[in-house]
């Protein structure tokens, strides 16, 4: 290890992984295979806020770019680069306190659910098992629980943050309130490195999982009917509609699946109403048993895999969680349900995909909005809708990858007239102009003030970060 990295290593409780080290291949990779060609100068696994501060000071003194990473799920690869990857995945403790839950920024959704099982308390978590709290909560936090309990960032009461000058600050309603405001939905990698959040938990209800599937030929009717069903009232919990195709010979289908906060008979009646609205009988319909919150959420995230198995392959001896292939995506937030004409155009775009592996996804959002003042600007959004396309063959031609990118550009053009904004945790490189306004809307001017105050030298920057 070069002398300068040794000097940092002596200051850390954590460790530094460099090119040539045994664990470097795992350490440098994100969840998405697309960014495997990026080779950071070092991955610094921080275990304390002091580690983070020392790493920032070291990077600044050496003119090294800092790339902050918690779960490594950034769709645009914003948590890696050629400089230092500052990784907080080992700051992952979960502690129940008086009225709150303390979450390390590296805590992954499935681990938080597991630790809190049996406590009677739970938190808002991501829709993928290994999404970590750092990025998830900083960007707003839309999850399976959002329709019933709101977004995750509304429940943040305080945060421990390492600032650009290496200082450790605790922001709350009484101390650094403008920084806390920005961290509630202003996006990760902008203002500092969060090492711990203190969040207000939710009382863990009993849940029922459900899934209902129709033939792809009625996808437009199902999409519009589902949106009407979601907005008509009643507590159906959180749900999404997805039109996937995950095999070259696999028949596509349209699915509605989610969780219900109540007894099975309640969702059975609600699904009867959905079927009536859709006007056609489904191919399959399943409603699970009423089970503890942590059990149902684990099934949604991990299926039959254990907690240890559900982690990304390479992270532990039992871990076998998959990584995502090379992807392109386009997502937008919608304030209104799509019209039949818009549904038709959306599905026609899906049909033209140059890759068999793609999906059209629509997640019901909304839910309680009476939380504290925050930088999350999309209170009018009812749905998060978007496309994702994947290429598993990393040896595919440059022309094929170009076709995939062109298709994603076209998908974004379909979504744009329907959109009220864009969700920063589902970032899209397709938004080449006006991305800051799309993500932050009316919160943008104040966010720029907070950025200038806490990171005037732009230490925390990436392709879609705010500039002081």
Describe the structure.
- The chain is α+β, with helices and mostly antiparallel strands.
- The protein is 30% helix and 21% strand.
- It folds into three domains: 3-87, Uridine Diphospho-n-acetylenolpyruvylglucosamine Reductase, domain 2; 94-204 and 443-454, Uridine Diphospho-n-acetylenolpyruvylglucosamine Reductase, domain 3 (2-Layer Sandwich), CATH 3.30.465.10; 208-432, Vanillyl-alcohol Oxidase, Chain A, domain 3 (3-Layer(aba) Sandwich), CATH 3.40.462.
- It has helices at 3-9, 24-27, 49-62, 109-116, 133-138, 146-149, 177-183, 219-231, 264-278, 293-302, 307-310, 340-351, 398-415, 435-440, 444-454, and strands spanning 15-17, 42-45, 66-69, 84-87, 94-96, 101-104, 121-122, 156-162, 168-171, 193-199, 202-203, 208-215, 238-245, 253-260, 284-287, 326-334, 358-364, 383-391, 419-421.
- The chain has an eight-stranded antiparallel sheet with strand order 15-12-14-13-17-18-16-19, sandwiched between helices. It has a five-stranded antiparallel sheet with strand order 5-6-10-8-9.
- α4 (109-116) packs antiparallel against α10 (293-302) and α12 (340-351) packs antiparallel against α13.
- The model has no long low-confidence stretch (mean pLDDT 91).
- Its cofactor is FAD.
- Belongs to the oxygen-dependent FAD-linked oxidoreductase family.
- Keywords: FAD, Flavoprotein, Oxidoreductase.
- It comes from Lentzea albidocapillata subsp. violacea.
């Amino acid at each position: 290890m070069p002398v300068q990295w040794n000097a940092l290593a002596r200051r850390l409780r954590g460790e530094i992984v460099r090119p040539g080290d045994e664990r470097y291949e795992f350490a440098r990779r994100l969840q998405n295979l697309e960014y495997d060609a990026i080779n950071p100068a070092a991955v610094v696994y921080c275990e304390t806020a002091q580690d983070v501060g020392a790493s920032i000071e070291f990077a600044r003194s050496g003119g090294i770019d800092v790339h902050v990473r918690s779960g490594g799920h950034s769709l645009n690869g914003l948590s890696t680069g050629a400089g230092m990857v500052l990784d907080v995945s080992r700051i992952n403790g979960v502690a129940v306190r008086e009225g709150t839950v303390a979450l390390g920024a590296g805590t992954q959704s499935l681990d938080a659910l597991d630790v809190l099982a049996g406590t009677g308390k739970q938190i808002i978590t991501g829709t993928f098992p290994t999404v970590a709290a750092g990025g998830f909560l900083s960007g707003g936090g839309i999850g399976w629980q959002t329709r019933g309990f709101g977004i995750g960032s509304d429940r943040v009461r305080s945060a421990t943050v390492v600032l650009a000058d290496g200082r450790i600050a605790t922001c709350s309603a009484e101390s650094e309130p403008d920084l806390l405001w920005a961290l509630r939905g202003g996006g990760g990698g902008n203002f500092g490195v969060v090492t711990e959040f203190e969040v207000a938990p939710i009382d863990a209800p009993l849940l029922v999982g459900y899934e209902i599937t129709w033939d792809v030929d009625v996808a437009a009717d199902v999409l519009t009917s589902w949106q009407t069903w979601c907005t008509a009232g009643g507590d159906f919990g959180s749900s999404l509609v997805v039109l996937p195709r995950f095999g070259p010979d696999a028949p596509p289908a349209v699915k509605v699946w989610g969780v219900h906060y109540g007894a099975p008979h309640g969702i059975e009646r609600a699904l009867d109403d959905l079927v009536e609205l859709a006007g056609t009988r489904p191919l399959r319909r399943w409603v699970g048993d009423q089970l503890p919150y942590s059990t149902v959420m684990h099934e949604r995230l991990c299926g039959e895999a254990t907690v240890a198995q559900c982690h990304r392959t390479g992270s532990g001896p039992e871990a076998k969680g998959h990584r995502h292939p090379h992807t392109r995506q386009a997502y937008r937030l919608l304030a209104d349900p799509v019209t039949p004409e818009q549904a038709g155009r959306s599905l026609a775009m899906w049909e033209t995909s140059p890759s068999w592996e793609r999906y059209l996804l629509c997640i019901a959002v909304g839910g309680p909005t009476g939380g504290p003042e925050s930088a999350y600007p999309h209170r009018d959004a009812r749905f998060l809708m978007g496309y994702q396309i994947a290429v598993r063959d990393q040896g595919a031609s440059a022309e094929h990858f170009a076709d995939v990118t062109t298709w994603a550009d076209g998908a974004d053009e379909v979504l744009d007239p329907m959109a009220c904004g864009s969700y920063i945790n589902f970032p899209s490189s397709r938004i080449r102009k006006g991305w800051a306004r799309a993500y932050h809307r009316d919160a943008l001017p104040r966010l720029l003030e907070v950025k200038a105050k806490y990171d005037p030298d732009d230490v925390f920057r990436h392709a879609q970060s705010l500039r002081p």
